[in-house]
Design brief:
Layout (H helix, E strand, L loop, with lengths): L17 E2 L2 E2 L12 E9 L10 E12 L4 E10 L4 E11 L4 E8 L6 E8 L4 E9 L5 E10 L5 E10 L9 E9 L2
Length: 184
């Protein structure tokens, strides 16, 4: 089985705001629920490696407005059961040119940055992000991420799926999921 280089891509679920039947202007303030401290759990699965056990992690995140409140930055730490910790920083902003939320992820354990647009999908009731990647053997693939936020904004649930160009067309196994809960 091939080892997949994974990344934690993040997508945000926000109910579209309507004013008098028309969608209101979007901004980074729509993601303001992210600001604050978070704790949660994560599970990394290895769907292409039958004999490999899932990896469990705890996560802590701290998110704040930065750069004159035009971005939200989240610093995260993901700790495995054996105590090893990986960190990465997330940046979110509203991209006026593309009419979507923009993400940027910078990792301490992966040499690439990940950046993609988030778009709302009413059928999935989620904002969905899609990015391209290569596994450790150079096989091209895509990653699709869904983030759903509770109505009160105090819980975020994410699921991530990937598809390699060598997979059957509709094969998108889930390999990563997490839940964040806001710290009071």
């Amino acid at each position: 089985m091939k080892k997949i280089i994974t990344s934690s891509l993040v997508v945000i679920y926000i109910l579209p705001a309507l004013a008098f039947g028309q969608e209101r202007e979007k901004s980074i303030e729509d993601l303001g629920f992210l600001v604050g401290a978070w704790r949660g759990e994560a599970t990394l699965s290895y769907p292409r490696e039958e004999n490999r056990s899932a990896r469990l992690e705890t996560v802590e995140a701290a998110c704040a407005y930065v750069l004159k409140d035009t971005y939200i930055q989240c610093d995260t730490a993901w700790t495995r059961e054996d105590g090893e910790t990986r960190t990465f920083r997330l940046h979110f902003n509203y991209n006026d040119l593309d009419g979507a939320y923009q993400t940027l992820f910078v990792y301490d354990n992966w040499p690439r940055q990940v950046s993609y647009l988030l778009n709302y999908d009413a059928k999935a009731s989620a904002y969905i992000g899609l990015s391209d990647f290569e596994d450790s053997d150079g096989v091209a693939g895509q990653e699709r991420t869904f983030w759903r936020v509770s109505e009160d904004g105090n819980e975020i649930r994410s699921e991530e799926y990937n598809h390699l160009e060598t997979d059957p067309p509709d094969h998108w196994p889930r390999y990563f999921e997490f839940v964040w809960r806001k710290v009071p």
